[in-house]
């Protein structure tokens, strides 16, 4: 069997036998019976009219019960967004606690909050895997985050040599690497091609490394719980 491409975070489900996706769903959307999914409360949701933390958390907890939901996310912190940072912290900490209680890894949204995220991982002594998605940081950020056991997922930024991550990408330890498309129209194959080119490796090697990472975090985990 051909090694599949893994798209660790996308909002656009695609039917393709050689592709494994973790599709991010809205809390309102029921979970399909096939495939892998994630549900979370994005920090931007705090801005929605009538947002209520208790009812939303309760719905999230229900959604996470499904065996096809392999991760809690996106959840996280965003310093560029207007939602109060204090409320973002409360919401994020509630989700960290839920991820630990239900043993579901987290997919993180992080805009200029590496330090806070690392501090919270320590504070909660989090054991679940955390994958910081849409990563576009420097080599120093890479070392800091991976040093705390946080995996990094990179997307279509790899197609743009002027982005920060392009130069920092080879610093990512392959055991902590994922690739994604998120909202981008570009196919995951293009992201793998670019990643392989930057790392001077071949796509097949990258596919098997990332498949191993996926199995370790998402498949072993659901079997244990
Ligand atoms: Zn996303």
Overview of the structural elements:
The longest helix is centred in the last third of the chain and has 22 residues, at 203-224. The protein has an 8-stranded parallel beta sheet, sandwiched between helices. By secondary structure, it is α/β, with parallel strands linked by helices. The protein has helices at residues 53-63, 85-102, 114-123, 139-147, 164-168, 188-199, 203-224; strands spanning 5-10, 19-25, 36-39, 69-78, 106-111, 130-132, 151-154, 177-179. Strand 3 (36-39), helix 1 and strand 4 (69-78) form a beta-alpha-beta unit. The chain has one domain: Metal-dependent hydrolases (TIM Barrel, Alpha-Beta Barrel), CATH 3.20.20.140. It binds zinc ion. Zinc ion binds at residues 9, 11, 24, 74, 182.
Summarize the structure.
This protein is of the alpha/beta class and 225 residues long. The chain has helices spanning 53-63, 85-102, 114-123, 139-147, 164-168, 188-199, 203-224, and strands at residues 5-10, 19-25, 36-39, 69-78, 106-111, 130-132, 151-154, 177-179.
Residues in helix, %: 25-40%
- Report the CATH topology name: TIM Barrel
The chain-level mean pLDDT equals 95
Instruction: Give the name of the CATH architecture.
Output: Alpha-Beta Barrel
Q: Give me the CATH superfamily.
A: Metal-dependent hydrolases
Please state how the strands of the largest beta sheet are arranged side by side.
Answer: 1-2-3-4-5-6-7-8
Q: CATH class, please?
A: Alpha Beta
Portion of residues in beta strands equals 15-25%
Radius of gyration: 17 Å
- How many strands, what sense, and barrel or not for the largest sheet? 8 strands, parallel
Order of helices and strands: EEEHEHEHEHEHEHH
Distance between the termini: 28 Å
Number of helices: 7
Tally of distinct domains: 1
Annotation, overall tally of beta strands: 8
Question: Rough shape?
Answer: globular
- What structural class is derived from the secondary structure elements? alpha/beta
The bound ligands are: zinc ion
* Low-confidence segments: none
């Amino acid at each position: 069997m051909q090694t599949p491409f893994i798209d660790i975070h996308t909002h656009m489900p695609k039917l393709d036998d050689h592709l494994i996706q973790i599709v991010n769903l809205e809390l309102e959307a029921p979970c399909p019976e096939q495939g892998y999914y994630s549900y979370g409360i994005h920090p931007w949701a705090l801005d929605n009219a009538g947002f209520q933390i208790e009812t939303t958390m309760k719905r999230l907890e229900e959604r996470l019960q499904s065996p096809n939901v392999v991760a809690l996310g996106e959840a996280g912190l965003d310093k560029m967004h207007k939602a109060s940072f204090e409320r973002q912290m409360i919401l994020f900490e509630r989700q960290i606690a839920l991820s630990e209680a239900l043993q579901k890894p987290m997919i993180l949204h992080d805009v200029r909050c590496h330090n806070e995220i690392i501090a919270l991982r320590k504070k909660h002594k989090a054991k679940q895997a955390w994958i910081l998605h849409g990563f576009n940081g420097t080599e120093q950020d890479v070392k800091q985050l991976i040093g705390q056991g946080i995996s990094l997922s990179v997307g279509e930024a790899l197609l743009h040599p002027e982005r920060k991550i392009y130069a920092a990408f080879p610093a990512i330890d392959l055991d902590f690497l994922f690739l994604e498309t998120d909202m981008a129209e570009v196919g995951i194959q293009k992201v793998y091609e670019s990643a392989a080119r930057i790392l001077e490796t071949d796509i097949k090697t990258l596919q098997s490394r990332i498949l191993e990472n996926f199995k370790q975090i998402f498949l072993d985990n659901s079997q244990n719980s």
